[in-house]
From TrEMBL:
Domain Peptidase M20 dimerisation: 183-280
Keyword Phosphoprotein: no
Residues forming the catalytic site: 77, 136 (proton acceptor)
Annotated residues for binding of Mn(2+): 102, 104, 136, 163, 359
Source species, domain of life: Bacteria
Organism: Weissella minor
Family matches, as Pfam families: M20_dimer (PF07687), Peptidase_M20 (PF01546)
Pathway involvement of the protein, from the record: Amino-acid biosynthesis; L-lysine biosynthesis via DAP pathway; LL-2,6-diaminopimelate from (S)-tetrahydrodipicolinate (acetylase route): step 3/3
Protein name (database record): N-acetyldiaminopimelate deacetylase
Biological-process GO terms, alphabetical: diaminopimelate biosynthetic process; lysine biosynthetic process via diaminopimelate
Function, in words: Catalyzes the conversion of N-acetyl-diaminopimelate to diaminopimelate and acetate.
Catalytic activity annotation: N-acetyl-(2S,6S)-2,6-diaminopimelate + H2O = (2S,6S)-2,6-diaminopimelate + acetate
Amino acid sequence: MSETALSQADLQQIRRDLHQIPELALEETKTHAYLKALIVQWQTPWVEIREVPELPTALLVRVQGTQPQRTLGYRTDIDALPIEEQTGLPFASKHPGKMHACGHDMHMTVALGVLHHFCMTQPKDNLVFLFQPAEEEEFGGKKLYDLGVFKDEWRPDEFYGLHDNPALPAGQIATRQGTLFAGSCVVRIVFSGAGGHAAMPHLTNDALLAAASFVTSVQSIVSRNLNPVDAGVVTFGSLHAGGSVGNIIADEAKLIGTMRGLTQVNLEMMMDRIQRIARGTAETFNVDVDIELEQGGYQPVENDPDTTARFIDFMEQDEASDFTIVDSAMTAEDFGYLLHQIPGTMFWLGVNDPSHNLHQAVFSPDEAALLPGIQSITRFLTWRMAQN
Ligand SMILES: CC(=O)N[C@@H](CCC[C@H](N)C(=O)O)C(=O)O
């Protein structure tokens, strides 16, 4: 690979290599090894690589600046989703039932492209790159922060990170002031009743019926509890009840869902309502219920006013960047936690796959986004370093 800049062919190869080895949250061992091998190859005297024994798939890289005034942070996530890929691409996932269906392979490639530039050209300010495990589940960013990895010279003064967006043209950068992404919380519910013969329902407590009623009832949270001028989502993406036949009443129903709100207050109200509806449903159908809310959820991604004003100013005046302002989205991101600790800005990178969406088995981002994305971010960081 080139010593000056990575070519589109280099970037495509990296992205395709990563795409073939998707790994779930906290299991990203091959991905970690691949990233580390490349970074070691590019390592120059001003570049330090750091492992985190407590979270062994994480990787941090610090680039020492020539005349540092600050430390700029750049984060990418590295985990994949439990989805069976259906793109039919020649470089499709080699891991059955796992896929980079949220584009973290693209995120990693962009981060590597930016890092490669500063490995070859020593920057003025310090940089800290975070290759973060466990974005989709398991709170990787929060875990790392709570482990204290961002201390002293490893603490960024400003943190930046991106997510790819199939609805935007390839290479376009987009963000907004304020809340970019929703806060979210995963909820796991188990209704336990008493099974029995389909013809004798009066002798059972039907857990499947309770679950069906519950899934319908929780849709009233957004329509009846949330202020109509605010946004919220309640989605149950998983419901399992009963066996393989229709004439046995189910004794257990397990559901997994996610709820989202653009403010922490709304998210907490939704968490409260969902628990009340679950308990009320259990009472109504004479079944037991077990409710588990995941560690208080992911915080909304709130862009910092100052870093975001500068980011937007730069992108709007940079003729080589394609930039637009966007509305908030109901996707969630573990980066929200880090942005509550360290000021920064999250933004979208357009990957031009408008007929598909994130988390779909056919999602196929356009690799043409890689080079312009890397160049816009590198120009922004270089410009930021030139400022007092
Ligand atoms: C960008 C994106 O798709 N992020 C995920 C984050 C998931 C957070 C958590 N596991 C949840 O489901 O609430 C998303 O689903 O938005």
